[in-house]
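Reproducibility note. Readers wishing to regenerate the assembly model reported in the main text can use the exact inputs given here. Chain order matters: entities are listed in the order in which they were concatenated for prediction.
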Amino acid sequence: MSIQAKSQPAIPVLPNGEAEHKPCWSCGDMRAAYFCSSCGKVQPPAPTDYFSFFGLPRHLGLDLAALEREMLALSRRLHPDLYARASAQEQDWSLQQTSKLNNAYRILRDPIQRTEYLLRLEGAKPGEAPKLAGESAPARAAQKPTVPADLLEEVFELNLQLEEYRAGKKSGNEDCALRRELESASGNFATKLHTLAGELKGGWQEWDAIVDSESAGESVPPPARRRILDRLADVLHRRRYFANIIDEISAALNES
Amino acid sequence: MANDKVVGIDLGTTNSLVAYMEGEQPVVIPGEDGSHLVPSLVAIDRDGKTVVGNAARALLIETPERAVYSIKRLMGRGVEDIAEELQLFPFRMAEDLAPGEVLRIQLGEHSFTPPEISAFILRQLKRNAERYFAAPVKQAVITVPAYFNDAQRQATKDAGRIAGLEVLRLVNEPTAAALAYGLDKRSNGVVAVYDLGGGTFDISILKLSDGIFEVMATNGNTHLGGDDIDNLLLGVALDDIRGDLGIDLRSEPGAVQALRRQVIEAKHALSTQESIRFDLLLPEGRRYQREIARAQFEQMIAPILQRTVGPCRYAMRDAGLDPGQIDEVVLVGGSTRIPRVRQLVRELFGREPHGEMNPDEVVALGAAVQADILGGASDATKDMLLLDVTPLSLGIENLGGVVAKIIHRNSTIPASATEYFTTGVDGQTNVAVHVVQGERELAKDCRSLARFDLRGIPPMPAGLPRIAVKFLLDANGILHVSAREQRSGQESEIQVQPSYGLSDEQVVAMVLESFDAAEEDFEKRLLIEARNEANTILAATEKAKQSPAWQLLVPAESAQIVELAKYLQEAREGEDFEKIRQGVQALNLASMHLAELMMDAAVATALKGKTMGEAAAGQPDVAPVAGHAFAKADIEEGR
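Running the prediction on these inputs yields the following structure tokens for the assembly.
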């Protein structure tokens, strides 16, 4: 692998602003985000968020087909393969821009990651705490979410059942009745997960409406914003929790 | 030079090829003997000369300790992790290897690292291309298995450098094959490429839309290929011979290689014949004879072929597809000629696979297409673009040895991730990061890429520094790291200890060393360049004879030019580049007057109807370019 002699300007993970307007390095004209509108030369990446990169408002409801088309169209113009004979600086910029394009596309096309990303942008979730080198930092996906309050009893009961089942299996006495109960519980959570998907979509619509109002010039009171963001965060939290439970039950039932 | 050809190279485990784009089609460049395939065999003969390819076959059998094959298996790997390879292949490690040193293989009296050995093969391909074009070749696209990790990729790039090639891009083999296929078919849809080569297996699933080749998922095994089939059969034969005839051939490396050669030929034959008769002459006049039926053969190799099924299923799962959603399947690699393989693929994907493209050549042809795309695109490839992925997740080791993944497998590349670190101790100025590649939970089960030391952090209370470390996978799938402490804005100095591989200094040293050792090459290069110059000036002379300026010469002048041209033509057919150079100079000198006359004529034509002022403004540069007086005059005359 290779090391840069100089590092690039720090790439912010929680940026706020719009694309800066700077003059084009090649022809001096005011440039657009990735290409100068006058002379077409590739530009260094501007510190935009992923929505702005695609020229999109911060909507959670997204036309995936359109997003893909835009990604392919931008790839056709930004990709390093097209700069193999350009100056070293342009090659570097095309590399930076394309990696940003690929990162942005990957996050935005996935409904859960898109929602999580938006929450981070809006400051609704705690920012990324710096790791101690070597410290076991909570990896995003691997972190065990806390139990939603209204499910405490149900989950407590479920944990007992899981322990009982595992112990039984280990000593060679698999409890079939317990197995059926666990399978049924798993089914319940799968249904809950399904309902959540609907709730998520509903949350998206509410959020998108707020964004539209704001861009139309209306001001939306902060508590209203707060409320919908918290609701989205809660839906994601539950979703992660239920998915974990289903995995845990499946692991217990299937391990030999 | 802007017009230098960029070639595409398939550096294979068993065979290597070089190709380029000729007009609308990629074509393979043949070797001196006319063959398209250069066996990936390297030997050092008794005079210390390097022999590559077909010519090395005999040496492999006569002096096996001076020859090596399947070196690709050792690329980017360390001494600790080749125990299996050493058992299955006659690789001889250099005896004087110090711990922590890069692996070296003994060939006769010398030892070489795997990139140096691969460089011998690349140099042969380079020569073949230069001979074909009668022009230097300095840039190439080289293919690698999609499942190659960072160290294996870097080793391939190093090999290119040592061979005197600038590697513009590393392309994944199945993707290259898809390019060749897509160029040919020009249809949209989802394509699976099943690539079973000599040493590696790759399965890639791509979406083709309007010239964009987007890889959706890739999987594979870098220890699975035709070699494993050969070794299995070889083992069976050796045991047979020991059992039936009481001879243990394993003690005679030369005889083992001869047997291996036969075993491979038998394997090839069984793809088209139902059975084959084996007949090998052994030491002391004994004979080993056996009849092998295809059915038997297929039964023996079934477990090996079965190992390709898992990766195919994983790739489809990662792509979110079931077999019915795949439109086409393309077969790549010599091993896919085995009928049982075709059948397996048919069963896996529920459709008849494409085999009309030569499975040995399709990767090189695809590399040539990519070379064309990078070179600025001819019409044939101007709408084509490759969007590939990284095959393995990139992660950082945390306390407890657990891996935190920062870039997931099958992420489109280039891709990046920024991680933040801080210090645990007051005044701590260094931070250590261990980067790994792989899918396992624990770092020790993954492939170690490198350990980075971030130094020069300004001393601060513990927990205060905020060091942003950016990990970037470039379009070759190779990792670059940069770091900056955000509070002070200070760039951290990064010290890398790559877990495997050559340092930059080592590669540079090898490039220089190979340059000295290849005196012959350099002379050949000069010869090619001299011939090139001769061609240019001779062609220009021919054209000049047609121009009206020719009539303005006195007979003595034109006669002299004709004679010198004839002399140059003869010199060009010879091997003495000095003579050719001198011929070019002489002809150039003799043609100076003619060149001036042609220039005047061109200027006169251009000036017709212009005022003095306009003429002065548009005056062409009259000073002739040394050695190319005619070429310049040519241009002025408005060609």
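We highlight two features of this model. The longest strand of chain B covers residues 212-221. The two ends of chain B are 21 Å apart (CA to CA).
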